[in-house]
Amino acid sequence: MSAWQKMAVIGDSIASGVREPAAGYDDLSWIDRMTTALGTETLNLGERDLRAREVRDRQLAPALAFRPDLAVVVCGGNDAFSRTFDPAALEADLTHMVGAFRAIGAEVLTLGLFDIVASGLITDARFLAEFQPRLTLLHDITERVSHTHGAVFADFRAHPSVADPSIYSSDLIHLNARGHAIAAETALALLAQRAPIA
């Protein structure tokens, strides 16, 4: 149990919990694990392939109507991979969403994505040249917005497991069940710095 009673989750496939099974781990998403550990009623609106503006337009209002005391905001990856990536627009959308939850008194958790390039699984020169800088920019934007609004920022890019190939799914985008377990443990430890988790 924890200080939080209701958790709203908005975002893309990371929020929705896309993953592959991993030997020795229950096939649970990081949000599933957090829900169990926190004892919250959870509304997860996450949907794969959405960009930040789509998350804002489709998910923010119902999430706010849920009146959460804890919100998870995870998006921007699909923006970074888009040919029309607009960092300023992404920052504005993240600012609006995080700010809206903070305005109703909710704690907010955001994250910096695990950097799969560190695992050595991706060696494509085009990806490294074109998209790696965008993912770095996404990380920096999310961290900046989080700090501005007093949100909890889980910096998975700096996590000790980031270089471990065994935490990633075969699509080379998402985590597997082991990675989700690590993400949940890390997020919960950060939240516990704000309020006790029994």
From TrEMBL:
Pfam families, A to Z: Lipase_GDSL_2
* SGNH hydrolase-type esterase domain residues: 9-182
Q: Which SUPFAM superfamilies match?
A: SGNH hydrolase (SSF52266)
Q: Known CDD domains for this protein?
A: SGNH_hydrolase_like_1
- Supply the InterPro entries for this chain: SGNH_hydro, SGNH_hydro_sf
- The protein here is known as Lysophospholipase L1-like esterase
Q: What is the lineage of its organism?
A: Bacteria, Bacillati, Actinomycetota, Actinomycetes, Streptosporangiales
